[in-house]
Amino acid sequence: MRTEFAEGRLNDPSLREADAILRTCVHCGFCLATCPTYLLLGDELDSPRGRLYLAKTMLESGRPATEPVVRHLDRCLTCYSCMTTCPSGVDYAHLVERARDHIEHTYSRPSRDRLLRRSLATIVPNPALFRFAALAGQIARVLTRPCARWLPQRFKAMLVNAPRRIGSPSWVDRPQTIPAEGERRMRVALLTGCAQQVLRPEINEATVRVLTRHGCEVVIARGAGCCGAILHQLGSAESAKRFARTNIAAWGRELEAGELDAVVFNASGCGLAVRDYGHLLANEPELAAQAARIAGLARDVTEVLLKLGLKPLPARLPERIPVTYHAACTMQHGLGLRTQSKALLIQAGFVVSEPEEAHLCCGSAGTYSVLQPELSAALRQRKLSAIRARAPSVVATDNIGCITQLGGKDGIPVVHTVELLDWATGGPKPVRFPEVKQRNRRPSASADLSACATTDAGRR
């Protein structure tokens, strides 16, 4: 793609990067076939290629963003599917981040829109505020039920997304060091996140159990918190950097105190944000090296378990449980981890399938379900229809956003992959797992883990 930035504008490092990304695009259009919003709306301006043109025009001129540009860029899920498809390697995600940052600084949104976005940016990263808001949402959903049809669509979406069950604060979320069971094989820091602590605290608990069971000493670092992904999606790069600096400082102290083999995450959206810290803080000389080091240590919990190998499994699982694995966009497209979870689930004795259109987003995408409720609902129904066709007992996935999106009252039971692996290797049955018959012995594993890992590494 040809660019025409005005003389002197490319002195800005972020604009130089945007220029290089734009020039990589060859107009092939392969991205259109895998873009969820283009498939729903049929408008090329709601496709990656269309958004590239909009961002190019806006960034080249340096003029304030206009309403049509904002509307089409806001509809982007940032699902990274186009990046998997693109034969030219266009770094679409970083270009959209730059465009959203420009929008944040040059466009005045309607006051109601500004209030909603600021509320999300304030509440979601703070577990205490998020817990309070979730409880308020439960009450409001009951009180407004008689007049629900007249509520504004976004307010209605917030009530629909308010969790029906809120977990109690977990012992896992306190700063501490949890020793390995038996011989210590690794020392890892666990990112416990923000919203996940409130929505599904059992995920972090299962993660700690399965890691310590396999020889990991788990550190919950004092001061570490939200990864900053939500802020980035809302266009606030500076706020995202503040969270990144805090986490880097917290994990940096653990690095100084002793060996740290990995920074483990169990929410793929958070993990992708941490892996991008080196890029996010590349222009801050005092932090760039440490940020890159932390980013290089970031590992999904399934990557760590594949490296360690699952322990011999007790004969305790129900017979041949059908599990449909939903690969979160940040997992398969963002992180490039497409086989790890499936391989581990198969080894653990589950019968694993994937839905049709496995590459398409479920419509969660962080705050997207609140900011773009109609598109999010359409993608949710499309994904649930594909999942139901597999007739699973349960859905497994690796991201709290997908779990919340798919696991509503009309959905199928959805659990985190690590909860099933914890159960299979000696932990309790997942809280949200449906009742099934018990069996006498576990079927033998049918997955070649080394082959899966090799194939996945080749794709990355």
What this model shows, in words?
Helices cover 51% and strands 7% of the residues. The protein has 460 residues and is of the alpha/beta class. It has four domains: 9-106, Alpha-helical ferredoxin (Fumarate Reductase Iron-sulfur Protein, Chain B, domain 2); 111-161, no CATH class; 171-305, Rossmann fold (3-Layer(aba) Sandwich), CATH 3.40.50; 314-459, 3-Layer(aba) Sandwich (Rossmann fold), CATH 3.40.50. Strands 1-3-2-4-5 form a five-stranded mixed β-sheet. A four-stranded parallel β-sheet has the order 7-6-8-9, with helices on both faces. Strand 8 (394-397), helix 22 and strand 9 (414-416) form a beta-alpha-beta unit. The model is unreliable at 437-460 (pLDDT under 50).
State the gist of this model.
The chain is an alpha/beta fold and 460 residues long. It is globular and about 65 Å long.
Any key phrases for this structure?
Rossmann fold; 24 helices; globular; Fumarate Reductase Iron-sulfur Protein, Chain B, domain 2; single chain; four-stranded parallel beta sheet; alpha/beta; five-stranded mixed beta sheet; 51% helix; 460 residues
Q: How much helix is in the residues?
A: 40-55%
Distance between the termini: 25 Å
Q: What is the CA-atom radius of gyration, in angstroms?
A: 22 Å
Low-confidence stretches: 437-460
In percent terms, what proportion of residues is strand? 5-15%
Number of strands: 9
Helix-and-strand structural type: alpha/beta
Overall tally of structural domains: 4
What's the multimeric state?
single chain
Q: Sheet bearing the most strands, described?
A: 5 strands, mixed
CATH topology description of the largest domain: Rossmann fold
Count of helical stretches = 24
> Largest beta sheet: what is the strand line-up?
1-3-2-4-5
